Amino acid sequence: MKQILLYILIAAVIVGCITPPQYTEEFPTIEPTQTDDSQMANNLPDISPTEEEGVYSNEDYGFTMDYPDGWNYAEGFMGSIVAFMSGSEQNDVFTENVNVIGQDISASPISLEEYTTISLSQFEQYLTNFSLISSEDIEIEGNPAHKVVYTAKQGQFSLKFMQIWTIFDNEVFLFTYTGELAHFDDYSSQASEIMDSFSLL
């Protein structure tokens, strides 16, 4: 259970660290620490800029995903496989984003139902002001998956999350779209398209 918690919280931590380079306030984290500007600069992702929609491909994990015009992506940031960043307004202090995390559970296999039960329980325990909006079974690539939408507080940000997890051959794929509560709907359609475009190679 601790391993699952780690991956769930990594997804939450990532959203607090993906901010436009001009933002110099302290990044919010699960356990806030004092951070100076030079440390934050080192935490910024190496972004691959895009000017038109395209296809992201990862041969190591064996999948592709489409991303829309104006979005950027960074690989391997804060434990993620890839994080897609929206083209937020330049003066925004938070960048709406979709991140993808992979978790190998071959050493301790569990079912999708067990993963869902544990995840929801841990959200309530470890996310500040957690409030579940919806929870439903769906499919990805014809494979059973689960989707949740919820709100929580992280540092100075009031956030809304759309999260999907599924299991392929003892590999959990965890997709998380996060946006500020006031701007979540601005990018939710594009975020859903990114998630829905997931395709195994």
Task: Provide an overview of this structure.
- With 201 residues, the chain is an alpha+beta fold.
- It has one domain: Mog1/PsbP, alpha/beta/alpha sandwich (Protein Transport Mog1p, Chain A, 3-Layer(aba) Sandwich), CATH 3.40.1000.10.
- The protein contains 4 helices and 10 strands, in the order H-H-E-E-E-E-E-H-E-E-E-E-H-E.
- The longest helix is centred in the N-terminal third of the chain and has 16 residues, at 2-17.
- The chain is globular and about 40 Å long.
- The two termini are 30 Å apart.
Annotation keywords:
7-stranded antiparallel β-sheet, 3-stranded antiparallel β-sheet, globular, disordered N terminus, 201 residues, 10 strands, single chain, 37% strand, Protein Transport Mog1p, Chain A, 4 helices, alpha+beta
